[in-house]
From TrEMBL:
<dbReference type="GO" id="GO:0008233">
    <property type="term" value="F:peptidase activity"/>
</dbReference>
<keyword id="KW-0190">Covalent protein-DNA linkage</keyword>
<protein>
    <recommendedName>
        <fullName>Abasic site processing protein HMCES</fullName>
    </recommendedName>
</protein>
<dbReference type="InterPro" id="IPR003738">
    <property type="entry name" value="SRAP"/>
</dbReference>
<dbReference type="GO" id="GO:0016829">
    <property type="term" value="F:lyase activity"/>
</dbReference>
<keyword id="KW-0378">Hydrolase</keyword>
<dbReference type="GO" id="GO:0106300">
    <property type="term" value="P:protein-DNA covalent cross-linking repair"/>
</dbReference>
<dbReference type="Pfam" id="PF02586">
    <property type="entry name" value="SRAP"/>
</dbReference>
<keyword id="KW-0645">Protease</keyword>
<keyword id="KW-0227">DNA damage</keyword>
<dbReference type="GO" id="GO:0003697">
    <property type="term" value="F:single-stranded DNA binding"/>
</dbReference>
<keyword id="KW-0456">Lyase</keyword>
<dbReference type="InterPro" id="IPR036590">
    <property type="entry name" value="SRAP-like"/>
</dbReference>
<comment type="similarity">
    <text>Belongs to the SOS response-associated peptidase family.</text>
</comment>
<dbReference type="GO" id="GO:0006508">
    <property type="term" value="P:proteolysis"/>
</dbReference>
<keyword id="KW-0238">DNA-binding</keyword>
């Protein structure tokens, strides 16, 4: 699960939406956007992102030789196996999600886990499909929002504010625990990549799907997950819990087409008229 996401806003919006309190200055600070050397990845906002596309990811500044507590960096969604020698998106493995139950014994993920290569995957939300008989109904799933805020509404983003004394006042992005790696192509291009950690669903979400992403529900959890020096791998995994706060609404079935990138992908689906209504006496 978690095979489609939405990141509809520009990098400047996400820099503000992931802003943090800097204890050194006593003020809130926007997250800096990091461009890795010898890396040509570019993030392009989209309402319908698929694995192998680039999305914004939070990571500790130490992984980028920076003193910043956290940075935002575009990464390819799907870990590229270190032994792969071809095109980055042609390794033939499904690596966009990693089951928490097998991380420590995984040939693909255990090294990143033990090396402290933990990251936080941000998005406006993700899509999941609920089986309804022979059909599937897509849902857009996102973090709980403050009153009168809708994460899918561009007007809420445009009216949002960030200042050093209060931080970000606007739509809340979803933050999911992940692992990242950095793959070097045969031509020397550096490509950072990541996977989203998933776990068994709880009753709150299980009626939609049996698996759910490991959601980090507050800033403390985000910082603990990113702090691989202060929190060893086993303790970090114990930090991850099933979310009880996810929100969702039905969306258009057109989101199932990965080529469909319209803004209505994330919008609540308009209720359909009941067929019997057409046969009511006038």
């Amino acid at each position: 699960m978690c095979g489609r996401t939405a990141c509809c806003r520009c990098s400047n919006d996400y820099k503000k939406a992931t802003g943090f309190f800097d204890e050194k200055t006593g003020e809130y600070k926007e997250t800096d956007w990091y461009e890795r050397p010898n890396c040509n990845l570019q993030f392009h906002p989209s309402s319908n992102l698929c694995p192998t596309e680039a999305t914004p990811v939070l990571l500790s500044g130490k992984h980028c030789q920076s003193s910043e507590m956290q940075l935002l960096q575009p990464m390819i969604w799907s870990i590229i196996p270190s032994w792969h020698k071809g095109q980055y998106n042609k390794h033939g493995m499904t690596t966009n999600n990693a089951r928490i139950e097998g991380l420590k014994n995984s040939k693909l993920y255990s090294k990143a886990l033990q090396n402290g290569q933990r990251c936080v995957v941000i998005s406006d939300g993700f899509y999941e499909w609920k089986k309804c008989g022979k059909n599937k109904q897509p849902y857009f799933i996102y973090a709980p929002q403050d009153e009168n805020i809708r994460v899918e509404d561009a007007r809420c983003w445009e009216s949002a504010e960030f200042d050093r004394s209060r931080g970000w006042k606007g739509p809340k992005v979803l933050k999911m625990a992940g692992l990242f790696d950095v793959w070097t192509s045969p031509d020397g291009e550096v490509i950072p990549c990541y996977t989203v950690i998933t776990m068994a669903s709880n009753p709150h979400f299980g009626w939609i799907h049996e698996r759910m992403p490991a959601v980090l529900e507050n800033e403390e959890a985000v910082q603990e997950w990113l702090d691989s020096d202060g929190l060893p791998a086993d303790d970090a995994l114990n930090l991850l819990k099933q979310s009880e706060t996810l929100r969702w609404h039905q969306v258009t079935s057109r989101v199932g087409d990965s080529r469909y990138k319209s803004a209505d992908c994330t919008k609540p689906m308009k209720s359909q008229p009941v067929l019997s209504a057409f046969f009511k006496p006038k």
